[in-house]
Amino acid sequence: MIKFLKKLGPGLLFAGAAIGVSHLVQSTRAGADYGFSLLWALLLAHLFKYPFFQYAPRYAMATGESLLDGYKKLGKGVLYAYFLLNLTTMFTIQTAVTIVTAGLASNLFGITANPITWSVIVTICCLLILLIGKYKLLDNLMKIIICTLTLCTVVAILMAFSSSEKSINLTQTFPTDIGGIAFIIAFMGWMPAPLDISVWHSLWALEKKKGQKSYKTKRAITDFNIGYLSTIILGVFFLSLGALVMYQSNEDFNNGATQFAFQFINMYTETLGSNTYYVIAIAAFTAMFSTTLTTLDASPRAMAACTSLILKKKNRNYYPYWIISLAIGTICILFFLLSEMKLLIDIATILSFITAPFYAIINYKLVTSKHMPNKWKPSTCMHILSWMGILFLIGFTLWYLATIL
Fold first, then answer.
1. Through-space distance between the first and last CA atoms of the chain, rounded to whole angstroms
2. CB burial class (10 A; 0-12, 13-18, 19+) of residue 286?
3. Of the residues 16, 264, 340, 389, which has the fewest C-beta atoms closer than 10 A?
4. Which class is domain 2-404?
5. Domain boundaries, the chain
6. How many other β-carbons are positioned within 10 Å of the β-carbon of residue 381?
7. Cα-flanking dihedrals φ and ψ of residue 333, to 5°?
8. What would the pLDDT profile of 41-86 be if each residue is shown by its tens digit?
């Protein structure tokens, strides 16, 4: 088992980045508000986003370069577009995941109930881990976090099924009201994750390759598939927990981070018993801490690589500058938008959804271009799924824009 875990890397980092707000907050809200009736949205988002995420390790290992290098080959405009999009969303996303993590830390560890204080503590801890331990520590730590998260979530879901007296209704529905439509877009925007994470994955794959020469294309794709499958399973689990524990309870989630965390944990312990407190609390905290840690690493890593390509200075390390800027920017934003956690998350997830077609198209174009070795170009099935995914993402985006305008 230990040997097997050592071979894994970027796939679990992908899972760590993905299993956060999309699962803990959005999946739980989906179950709480709609029962099991939005299970279709969770599965459909995973299906149609799959090829564009998978193309990241495929391209990186087949060519020895990141997606960002490929974007530059497609045209400098593509690289500049990525830089601007990532700059626009990185601070909002980091703020959203940090404030949720801080709220959960406050409830789990006590010490202080001030979410700003906990946000600073969490950010500094993540910053030190990444600056001192770098990729190797991140890789090893994420394996422990994901295993802990999976174990606690499995225990929680078994308890929920055994104690719930609610009948399970798997009838699927499609909300037609404005609020329901907005929620579906937000839900699918980060399910399992924003498509720009594909860039992060390609960079992580190259880092893994530096430390493990046997980490090649086939293994990288298998590694990714394991991580991706875990995001599907845990997404279904969190939706089920919301449906079994919170559905039809007439409870609404509070917009404040600490209040949300207390409400989240309290609703479970009231239903499943006070002895389940630490199981639920640890599962929730590890889910969010993994996301906070990986996003704090990935966005600066991507921006550093992008900056090097734009300025044509590949030997210059811009990573420390970007990670410190992101940490400071996150804390500054929290001082002004603390009470609007739910709004912040919805804005970040909606932005992720409407930019998804851009990433889907350029990732597909890159792996089917002359820059990709023929041996590793997508199969016919992946071509078909890619086109279906692109049409799905464009269609949903246009439909959403038409709805709100």
1. 53
2. buried
3. 340
4. mainly alpha
5. 2-404
6. 9
7. -65, -40
8. 999 999 999 999 999 999 999 999 999 999 999 988 999 999 988 8
What are the b/e assignments for 252-274, b being 16+ CB within 10 Å? ebbebbbbbbbbbbebbbebbee
Residue 168, token pair as written in the block = 């399970």
* Residue positions counted in the chain: 405
Instruction: Provide the Cα torsion 273, 42, 46, 78; round to 10°.
Output: -110
The pair of three-digit structure tokens given for residue 105, joined into one six-digit string: 């830390």
Number of H helices, E strands in the chain: 17, 0
Amino acid at 269: T
Q: What is the pLDDT of residues 189-226, one digit of tens each?
A: 778 888 888 999 999 888 888 877 778 888 889 989 98
Tokens of 255: 């917009």
Return the sign of the alpha-carbon dihedral for residues 133, 194, 196, 115. Answer: negative
Q: Which two tokens stand for residue 320?
A: 């420390």
